[in-house]
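Async update (no meeting this week)

Hi team, since we skipped the sync, here's where things stand on the single-chain job. The sequence we agreed to prioritize is pasted below, unchanged from the tracker. I ran it this morning and attached the output directly underneath so nobody has to dig for it. Comments welcome in thread, and please keep replies under the output.
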Amino acid sequence: MLKSLYIKNFVLVDEIKVVFDSGLNIITGETGAGKSIIVNAIGQLCGERASTDLVRTGAKKAVIEAEINVKSIHNINKLINELDIEFDHSQPFIIRKELNASGASRIFINDSPINLSRLNFFSSMVFDFHGQHQHQRLLDQNNHIAYLDSYCRIDKSLIIYREQYDSYMKAGRERDELISKQHKAFQMQDMYRYQNEELTKAELKDNELDELKQELKILSNVENLHQFGRALTDTLYNGETNAGDLLSQAETDLITLSEMDTQFGTFIQNLQEARSIVEEIGSFTEKYLDSLEFDPQRIEFIHQRIASLEFLLKKYQKTTIADLIELHTEIGQMLGDMEQFDEAIRQKEKEIQTLQDELILAGERLSQIRKDGAQQFEKTITEIMHHIGMNDARFQVTQSNVENADSQLVLNGKHINPGKNGFDEIVFEVSSNAGEDFYPLQKIASGGEISRIMLAIKSVLAETDQTPVLIFDEIDSGISGRVAQIVGKNLCELASYHQIICVTHLPQIAAFAGSHYKVSKMVQDRRTLVEISLLNSEQQIQEIAHLLGGIDISDHALQNARHLLAESKKN
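Output:
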């Protein structure tokens, strides 16, 4: 629910804060007092476009901030995930919009900046506006099917259908992907065969390039290897003076010293190990030099092989031989799969046909449920419309299939385009006056009629509709007396399921208020200001008497106001 609304420097508002109740919140005030400013401020938080003329003259920016109780929001986790914000479930949502006089505006939820599309998503989960100048979900035909489904309590059948729809669509995508791969394979088969033959002839081996480069380095340095190898063996033990002889002499001297002082004995093993290492290095070097020989033919082969491998790497845009080997394997698989495409596609088409038959059954079941429910829905809505002053109006639900010549799904000889909600297109139509044809709701000009039609629909869907806040503006247009009292009673009943904010000028409706607010306009320091105040019981009587009797409130008007309040409480 909307707990509070803070407005600063917005149109004629200097600074106000309104705390709303959970039930029926009524806003009244004289014509031109600024009631619409409150509604328009909420509209800004619901995604309406801002303009610079909304910023109070002389101010740098306007601020509108609402505190939302999250416990009232259905599917709160989906909302938080969609907004991608950090949120503590024990805290309220704080949504704020800043309208700068320069023309730019900024939007925040819990101090996290969001864009207009995310604001619209948020507001659609919280607010439902009904008035001539606000967003009206009812006028969007795409929403009509959801209203009817809610009335028909179609959830379980819709879940089953959507599971089958998802399976059907997935299978179709897989079939299309197979066909695409097949076309690509046939188009590229000559190239694939050439590439496969080229890579096969290359006889690729992992790490071969690194090994060849190392071998080439050795063969290119044979002369230097011999020169430095001989020098090393001379130094270690072949030379006239060499490390081996010196270490042997040192070992003899160390043994002699240890016989005189045992402290030297601890080093004998280390010296012996050093001499052994020197001998091992020398022995290895001699054998290495004996096996080392210059081979110009081998060098030429390695140069050619390296050039060939590097050419393949560059050609196929790979970095390692392992990548080339993997590509070779993939090409081989594609060539092998070409022979299997026809069978795979045939099997997938068979699967799609089975899924399509199941989907048609589920879709027909949905359509029948809607058809059966629509009859009672039409009757109930029409009756309520008559009760709330639309005496000759009639409500109608038109149900049709969404046709698409390119669709493979055929129902009753027609190509039907399946959607997430089934095969149906649902449109609400109204005939406002006797003898008139039915027209879609968006062609009805009167905001008051639209609001009352929505009141009728919301009354029917009260227990199933999960939008927490309903806002009605101009709902009292064209009605009075007994009909107005019936509208007030319906609003009061609806407020058992939703928080309602309703702007009205009719005392019969205002008498049903759980919380009654009065908007007034005044001049202070030669500037016009708009204020809103919550009325206590006595003030509410005065305001209703004012709505009944005009500027001068008579005792008779006060008596009528008390009677009207008593009647509303009785109802």
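Quick observations from my side:
The mean pLDDT is 85.
The longest strand covers residues 515-524.
Reply here if anything looks off.
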